[in-house]
Specification:
Blueprint: H1 3-6, H2 15-38, H3 45-56, H4 64-70, H5 78-87, E1 91-95, E2 103-107, H6 109-130, H7 135-148
Antiparallel strand pairs: 1-2
Length: 154
């Protein structure tokens, strides 16, 4: 799949523009693929991300700020995401005993069970998405993406 053909671009693009367009297009494509996998579970990619963050806390309560800092999409409305997960009984929110202004958020047993099932489907989708790349190519891609995010401009 050539990015110029996908976007129907007829003029020659500078490599830097082509690379960035390709990254954005591919990121959206991956997001669409994962979203379609999550749809039967009635959960969004952002809600899935919150559940994974909370499970990774291994029972330690988290704050909205901590969740926000660890989110893949920093533009997510964490409060709204947590509220939706509370309605599904996947997380719980309690006022902190030692600091009444702080709210502790934890994943519930039901949330852990749901996440265990969802993770199987997502892991399978991630394997299918990346199956055209070797382990070495994936390592190289990760290295390049990390390098790209290293800010060297003023």
């Amino acid at each position: 799949m050539i990015i110029e053909k996908e976007l129907k671009i007829t003029k020659k693009l500078p490599e830097c523009k082509k690379a960035l367009l390709n990254l954005m297009y591919t990121g959206n494509w991956i997001n669409d693929e994962i979203t379609s996998i999550l749809k039967p579970f009635d959960i969004s990619t952002q809600q899935f991300n919150v559940l994974r963050i909370l499970k990774g806390m291994k029972g330690t309560p988290s704050t909205l700020q901590t969740i926000q800092e660890r989110m893949i999409s920093k533009m997510s409305n964490t409060t709204r995401l947590v509220d939706k997960l509370i309605k599904k009984n996947y997380v719980q929110r309690e006022q902190c005993e030692s600091n009444r202004r702080k709210v502790d958020i934890t994943i519930t047993e039901e949330g852990i069970k749901a996440l265990d099932v969802i993770n199987v489907a997502v892991d399978e989708a991630e394997s299918k998405i990346t199956n055209n790349l070797s382990h070495q190519e994936l390592e190289h891609l990760n290295h390049l993406l990390n390098k790209l995010r290293t800010k060297t401009y003023a």
